[in-house]
């Protein structure tokens, strides 16, 4: 758990300005996507509602979504405190890779890694967005429209992260183009798998599992010693377990009751549908 907590504190600093507020560290995003506050690394004392309220007010002042993230086992009292502060708490299985079980994509689908200038990157990002936020209409038409309309700054930052080695992106493609994607962020021998999602019309075929296996294998080849992820649900966690992951803890997120319940965009986000 210590290595995970260190990663959670270190990785966002590449994307954010950092403010300490009592027992919390607030990561003020420099990116087009918001970040969050976490318990300060090494803080072992108790938390109270006033601590949470102070950070909430700061986030509102910054016009950032109110969001706290933490590992339940590292700060077990926080669920009660967040609830008392009027926030809604979501829980996600946290898993680490023990021994990777390979998973091949289905016939007609290939999984590959993308470089910063890859022409398919916009469509891959759009496919992940659709995987996390299904909507009405044809998946492929929506993917293509989203790809055409991605904010240039967002795509430029993703390319910059890939170029700098802060992210590795994998895409699954069939004859229509990208239908799934995912990424990982390495830091000091630890990597988190993030944003693994498949467009709804291509699910139940094992594409997400193939993406997960490819990302994990690539991280290990590049010297990562610890691969982990937070699953979007207990059902998704069971799929990851079949790939060699083991549940070790529970990742928690607290937001306003009417706010988002899972990270999205290109910062930290849990892994979604792996089917």
TrEMBL record:
Query: Sorted alphabetically, which InterPro entries does this protein's record hold?
Result: Acyl_CoA_acyltransferase, GNAT_dom
Superkingdom in the source lineage:
Bacteria
Query: Recorded GO terms, molecular function?
Result: acyltransferase activity, transferring groups other than amino-acyl groups
Domain N-acetyltransferase positions: 130-262
Matches recorded under Pfam families: Acetyltransf_7 (PF13508)
Q: Does the keyword Cell cycle apply?
A: no
What keywords were assigned to this record?
A: Transferase
Q: What is the recorded name of this protein?
A: Acetyltransferase (GNAT) family protein
- Organism, as annotated: Thermasporomyces composti
